[in-house]
Structures are given as structure tokens and as C-alpha cells.
């Protein structure tokens, strides 16, 4: 069977025989993965205008928190199915989740490190600088792979809470509040720390650990939300009062609009991607996605896989595309060319990898 025939067979399998409980989540994951490509190709220059800042804040920046909550939801779904919180079985579930994320983390994060080291060397950086730079990537992997490392650490922390704490939800709430305050101070609310004793501490932390967007501070907050909304009592209540999740979603968007408007022009830090209102908006969006399924006939299983593959591959492909565009003196304008070419190549390579029908390839490409 030729590679093209395998791709066609894979496509038909996804279109015709898919049975998925949450098709809206699959669709949103794919849309958000494309928006993440837009962020990393600088499709919107956030610092240049109010409109670009608002579009980025209201739509583009929702992807990562959404992925975290969904990951927490499905991981907890497996943990909750184990009777009596059996330590061995629950540990195996989390161990399997972590091991699954390691191959793409090592491969794509490693490729990103190699690309950056080559670029730094051409700029004349010393060996000691390159070694120090490489060490920092252990805390914050490149090519957007920080998300995978954060997911692994977040999964371990949430599993420990679930297994070791009888009132784990209250323990998580306290942990989440403290952690998210630090994330906000290292992000959109840096202006509150500016000029205080906290500013040098935040700058020192960022110099060593790069960002608060990691598995210690950020991931447990949003993955924990997935754990909470998957609880049987929460599921039963929200299923009975579906309108609450819709109202919460609307309120979340309104609050985010106000918050982003107020923060525009303030001194911010890091990627400027996290807001207080996301704590209401993101879990509400996940709940609405679960309760209200899209009626469109789409290959949802394929979209789910593509959302993962696009996330894994896009930074590496973007770097290669950028190199060739520069070599051929192609004008990218507002980076539209870079975004379009990167997206199309990422999807094409992903489809080819699916057609190979190889487990080792799937582990690396999603």
C-alpha cells in the first residue's frame, strides 16, 4: 500500500467511523492550536495597537489554559474510575500520561535548543554562555515544549493532592490561589510589583527559571480545574444547571474584555497571556463545550490529532520557513506569509505521519 493510499485510509477512518463524546472540545482544540501558530509567527503585533492587543487577549491567548483544563479533565476521568483511590493503579495512570509526553518533549525541545545554539554561536556568544543557556532550557524547554513539561509536573502534583489529601479540593484551592498570584505578578500584573521589593525577586526568578509558566505554578491551577469539574457532584450539578456554564462563559468574556482594556498600556512581563478573568472563562468554556455538541459533520478524531501535531511541530517548521524566506529575500509583510506557510506545512507533515500508521512516529508527531 502506497503512502498516499494510507493517508486516504486514515482520513476515511476519521471521517466515517469516529465516535467521540466531546466533538466541540476537539474542534476548539484544533482552532486554538492554529491560533497558537499565529502567536508564534507574530501574526498580530500585540504591542502596536489596542485592537491587536484585544484580539490576542480575547481569543489567541485562551488556547494554553484551555488545553490544561481539558488535560486535567481527562486525566482525572481515568483516576476517578479507579476504586478506592488505589495508589498503585493511580500512579500507573499518571506515569503513563507522563511517559507519553516525554518523547515529543525531548525531540522537539531538543531541536529548538540546537537551532537556538547555532544562531547564538553565529552571533559570537561564548561557550560558557551557551552552556548556561542550555541549562535554562531544562526549566523552560524551547519550541513551546514548556507546555509538555508543565503538564507532566502538573499531573504529578494533582495526582499527589488527589491521593494524599482527603480534602484535596481545598488543598488545591489554596495552592492555586498562591500560585496564580505569582503567575500574574510575573505576567500581566507585573506593574503591581514594579518598584517594590518583589520586582528584583521576580527578575531574579525569571533570569534563572525563565518564566512562571511552568508545572509548579501554572499547570496545577488549570489542570486542577479539570479535576474539579470532572468530579461526580460537579458533573451532576452542572448537567442539571447547564445555563450556569453559559452565563459564566458570557460573564467571563465580559470580564476579560474589561480587564484587558484596563491592562492595556500597563507595564507587563513575559508573554502577557494570563488574566484573572480566565479563571472563570476557561472552565466555563470547557463545560459549555461538553454540554453543547456541535452538529457539524467533521473528522473530529483527526482534528484532535492535528491539534496535538500542530502544537508539537509548528515552532520547528516556523524556524525552517523563516530561514528560507530570509535566504530568498521574501517579504513577509505582517508575517501573513510565515503564518500561512507554517500552518499548511505543519498540517501536511502531520497527515503524512498519520498515513505511516507507525506507533513510534505517532508518539513523536501526535
Task: Give me some keywords for this one.
17 helices, 366 residues, mainly alpha, single chain
Structural class: mainly alpha
Overall shape: globular
SSE pattern, N- to C-terminal? HHHHHHHHHHHHHHHHH
Q: Could you report the average pLDDT, rounded to the nearest whole number?
A: 89
Number of strands: 0
Number of helices: 17
What's the main sheet like? none
Q: What is Rg? A: 21 Å
> Portion of residues in helices?
over 70%
Proportion of residues in β-strands: under 5%
- As residue ranges, the low-confidence spans are 15-20
Could you tell me how far the N terminus lies from the C terminus, measured between alpha carbons in angstroms?
22 Å
